[in-house]
Structures are given as C-alpha cells and as structure tokens.
Design goal:
The structure holds two protein chains of two kinds.
Chain A (H helix, E strand, L loop, with lengths): L3 E4 L2 E5 L4 E7 L6 E7 L6 E7 L4 E4 L2 E6 L4 E6 L8 E7 L11 E2 L3 E6 L1
Parallel strand pairs in A: 2-11
Antiparallel strand pairs in A: 1-3, 3-8, 4-5, 4-9, 6-7, 7-8, 9-10, 9-11
Chain B lengths: L4 E3 L2 E4 L5 E6 L6 E7 L6 E7 L2 E5 L7 E4 L6 E5 L8 E8 L6 E2 L3 E5 L1
Classes of the chains: A mainly beta, B mainly beta.
Chain lengths: ~120, ~110
Amino acid sequence: GENVEQHPSTLSVQEGDSAVIKCTYSDSASNYFPWYKQELGKGPQLIIDIRSNVGEKKDQRIAVTLNKTAKHFSLHITETQPEDSAVYFCAASRAGGTSYGKLTFGQGTILTVHP
Amino acid sequence: DTGVSQDPRHKITKRGQNVTFRCDPISEHNRLYWYRQTLGQGPEFLTYFQNEAQLEKSRLLSDRFSAERPKGSFSTLEIQRTEQGDSAMYLCASSGGTASPFFGPGTRLTVL
C-alpha cells in the first residue's frame, strides 16, 4: 500500500518568514496530493491540492510543488502569520473512480509562527 | 447546511462497552468516509460508502467495528466491546464528484 513520509515534524518560524513542508510517497500510481490544516479540536481542513498533471499550483500565500519522478511534493507558505499556526498534513491517493477520498496521510507537521 | 457534523463530540466509556457515533455529511455528497486519528498521527482510512453501499474497508476495521449508511444520508459507526486501544478521534468526511473530502470535527473516544 501507499506510504507517505512527512518532514519536519515541527517547524518554528518568525512572522513574515516562509515555511516549507516536504512529503514523499511510495506508490507511483498515486496522482492526487491534497494538503490539510488541522487546528486544535477541529477536523482537517483542505487548504490546497495538486493533481499529477501539473507541477505547481499557487493560491495566494500558499503553493504546492510536485516532482513525480522523485515522488515528492512540498507545501510552501510565504509571509507567514500567527494564524497559520496549526498542524499540517500531506496526503496522497489514487484519484479516480471510487478512490478520491481514500487518502494516505503523512505524520503531520506542527507549525508555530511567532509574532 | 454548514458542513459535516458528528455526534457526540466526546465519548468516555468503560472497556467492554459498546459505543455508536453518528455522522451527517454535506447533503449533496454521495461519498462518506470514516477515518481514525490517534494523538500525534495523521488520520487513517477505515471505510468508505458511496450512497448506501459500503465499498471498501481497511484492515484496521476489526470485526468489532461496523459502519452503516442505511439511506445514503447519515452514517453510524459502532464499536463493540471497546478496548483501550480504540481510544482515538474518529473523523467522518464526505465528498461529491471529484472533490476532495470535507472533514467533520470528529468524535473523541476515551476508553477507560
């Protein structure tokens, strides 16, 4: 089955700095890679996703890059703000048919943004 | 309809008791998923419904676990003879079409 590794497990930055979280996956058939943000006491919330037919996607301060050859993808947050502090999870799946929601998650990164 | 809702939000039970959780998905979503999340880990897939049909179950879902979605709307997850190892956050998610799943707030289960 799929295995997703996520690094670092904790990340501390100053407000305004950039943050980068990296993930690798094992299943070459995986073609859908979402990122979720989870705040204390809440369920994961989708923040951005990328499909295997593109190498990069950007949404305001958040961007994701994908390298299918190396089987890794990364989340980039620019101009970080204290409200970005949360746990971030990467995930992978074989999207298509019935598989869109069957996600394999990484272990999570605790991001702390200091004012 | 403001999103996926789950009930109860917290459940404390004694080892050996049965518990049942409910999930109400976003109304137009035909897919519903259950995940389990233990402290410090990412969610792990348990099972998945398309409408009322349960299409896939993880090996994590032992025979003490059963999930239903009788009319293709809400779903229940029952755990029989709970064990301390069942303590976790149980997350429900729903999706429609090719959209990513939307997660509910979860039910935190503590087995004493």
